[in-house]
Design a protein that fits this description.
The protein is mainly alpha-helical. It is 74% helix and 0% strand. Among the domains are: 128 residues, no CATH class; 31 residues.
Length: 632
């Protein structure tokens, strides 16, 4: 059999690892003719040549095992071990490639990994110095839910066994870097991997990510540009880099915006009809306040791909900024037709509806989000704000009370600075919202208490930021300052009013907003009126009227400015008469009275709404009861 020759290179394709073994056998057999395992080993080599399936490769391994068991000399034993290891690695490598090629998206990938690892562990029993097998063991275990310890041990072995194979050593160092928990160790391995093999572009790309994490975008860009140069015609790579720039942990400043635009310009030059590239460039121009350029790009993105729901949402954002609320709502609805359960789409629709004063519809959207994510306190806070805007402050207060329990006073103590600031800021926002809701039902003393605590928290936040050397300190909430000043200036309750303090607070709010907010200037006027300084009261209410007029001329929807102007003129007339302004609201009582005085047909409609509201309240109460039962 051997005299006829073992192989024909033109007919058979098999791993190079096996070729020198077969060649040595065709020239001068390495094992003794008397060894009993020789026939099985010969069959194993032939089976390897003929193998077309994993089952065939399993047969190769079994023949090698049989040959070893029956007996081979030292050279034959080495070749049997090498052949068996090669057959096992070939099977594992194929499964590994399938896993990595699909990004572990195949639902069966964990099964493949288990099978591949089993083959690899057996391979290294035949060939303990098989570096590529240890490298694959490390890669597979580095995937989600893998054995991290086993991965680290395998990659260390791969580094040790790489020897003079620079490409394998570079790959092993790169993999070890991805597993490293120490930043310095990670960077050292990445640098060494790139030094040994400058073409290791995976290492180059991961080092760029490292530099982004370390707030070194210039170094990151140098690496990413090298990666881009390796495949200049791939528009997707340019898009990926632009996205990374946008997600950098450092401030996405003008220089990075320009660089991202430059990179996307190249992507669009390569692929002019790439909808994603156009929508991403539009997003960056929105960040840079270049809305005209952004709208051109996003229009083209939607034209190129009518199913690009992200582009539709972006255009809705731009329209919302431009107060084109009908157009914005139309785009959001189109996006939700494509992706019905798109959370940010539902949230944006709720926001637009609230801007249109369509509070009941907005409430339905945010309730849907809140019910599907009970742990998301942001949705609860939004819902409370909408209830207050919809003249349902009592419902808002119920939610705010629960939020205050979640972020209890002092609950931030002992936590990291970042967590402290987050809890304090959330509590301050909740207190402000609760104060606003109390104002809506005439609870002035309760409102003052809430605003005061929110203001103290704002000061504590600034002090903490100062102690930590934060470069840009948080401003005090001009809304808290204004609303507290307003109630101190206009409450009919003598025990609540404090004109001097109201002037101080309103002045602070006006300074923060650069004297460009009509409602704050109105508050300042009312504060002066409370102290009897009607000259200054008239001065500031006139200034408020001027600002309101300018805002109205610039506004697309003039409803808000028209309503505000009417109120400002009433205040102005009051100050001319040297009468301080007094205000006591109870929107729920007003609503009740309005209903009682309404025509019968309107009452029926209102009764139906009340029944619907009661049903909603009962559902909410039932859900709370279920939650409590679950807690118990």
């Amino acid at each position: 059999m051997r005299s006829k020759g073992w192989i024909s290179v033109s007919r058979f394709v098999f791993p190079l690892l096996v070729f020198p073994l077969l060649l040595s056998l065709s020239v001068a057999p390495a094992w003794g003719q008397t060894e009993e395992g020789v026939p099985d080993l010969e069959q194993a080599f032939q089976a390897k040549i003929d193998a077309t399936s994993p089952k065939d490769l399993d047969a190769v391994v079994k023949l090698c095992e049989s040959a070893i068991k029956k007996g081979l000399d030292a050279s034959g034993l080495e070749q049997a071990n090498q052949l068996a290891a090669s057959a096992l690695f070939e099977q594992a490598d194929k499964m590994g490639r399938e896993i990595f090629a699909t990004g572990a998206r195949d639902a069966r990938w964990r099964i493949y990994r288990t099978q591949a690892l089993s083959k690899l562990k057996k391979a290294v029993t035949f060939k303990p110095k098989m570096g590529e097998a240890f490298l694959m063991i490390a890669k597979l275990n580095a995937l989600p839910d893998g054995d991290r310890k086993e991965s680290l041990e395998a990659v260390e072995k791969a580094v040790e066994l790489a020897g003079d194979d620079r490409e394998q050593l570079s790959t092993a160092l790169f993999l070890r870097a991805t597993l490293a928990e120490d930043d310095q160790a990670q960077l050292a391995d990445l640098n060494q991997a790139i030094k040994i093999n400058p073409e290791n572009l995976d290492a180059v790309r991961i080092r760029a990510a490292y530099y982004f994490r370390k707030q070194e975008p210039e170094n990151a860009l140098a690496d990413l540009n090298k990666w881009l140069e390796s495949d200049e015609k791939n528009a997707g790579n340019y898009i990926q880099v632009a996205q990374q720039l946008m997600l950098t942990g450092s401030k996405f400043d003008e220089s990075l915006q320009r660089e991202a635009i430059r990179i996307l310009d190249k992507a669009i030059k390569i692929d002019p009809e790439n909808s994603t590239a156009h929508s991403l460039r539009a997003r960056i121009n929105v960040i840079g306040d270049k809305l005209d350029e952004a709208i051109n790009d996003v229009n083209l993105a939607v034209k190129l791909d009518s199913k690009n729901f992200e582009a539709l949402l972006l255009r809705a954002t731009i329209y919302s900024e431009q107060e084109k609320l009908d157009e914005a709502l139309d785009d959001v609805n189109k996006a939700l037709e494509i992706q019905p359960y798109l959370v940010n789409g539902i949230q944006m629709r709720g926001m637009i509806l609230s801007q249109q004063q369509k509070f009941p519809e907005a409430i339905e959207d945010i309730k849907l989000l809140a019910e599907n994510d009970r742990t998301n306190l942001f949705y609860q806070r939004q819902l409370a704000m909408l209830y207050n805007a919809n003249d349902q402050p009592s419902r808002a207060i119920t939610i705010y009370d629960q939020l205050l329990k979640e972020d209890a006073d002092g609950s931030w103590e002992g936590k990291s600075v970042g967590k402290q600031l987050g809890i304090m800021q959330r509590r301050a926002m909740t207190l402000r919202g609760r104060g606003d809701a109390q104002l809506s039902i005439g609870g002035h003393q309760a409102a003052v208490k809430n605003f005061d605590e929110a203001l103290e928290l704002g000061k504590a936040i600034r002090e903490l930021e100062e102690s930590e050397g934060v470069e840009k300190l948080s401003e005090l909430d001009d809304g808290v300052l204004n609303n507290l000043a307003w109630v101190l200036a206009t409450s009919p309750d003598d025990e609540v009013r404090d004109g001097e303090r109201a002037i101080k607070l309103a002045t602070q709010a006006a300074e923060i907003t650069e004297f460009k907010q009509a409602h704050i200037l109105s508050t300042l006027a009312s504060a002066y009126a409370e102290t009897g300084d009607f000259d200054n009261a008239i001065k500031w209410v006139e200034k408020a009227i001027e600002v309101n007029k300018a805002d109205g001329e610039a506004a697309v929807d003039k409803t808000r400015t028209d309503t505000q102007r009417e109120s400002l003129h009433k205040e102005y007339e009051s100050y001319k008469k040297k009468e301080a302004w007094r205000e006591l609201q109870n929107v729920e009582e007003d609503k009740k009275a309005e209903k009682e005085n309404a025509p019968d047909d309107d009452k029926k409609d209102d009764d139906k709404k009340d029944d619907d509201k009661k049903d909603d309240d009962k559902k909410d109460d039932d859900k709370k009861d279920d939650d409590k039962k679950g807690d118990r």
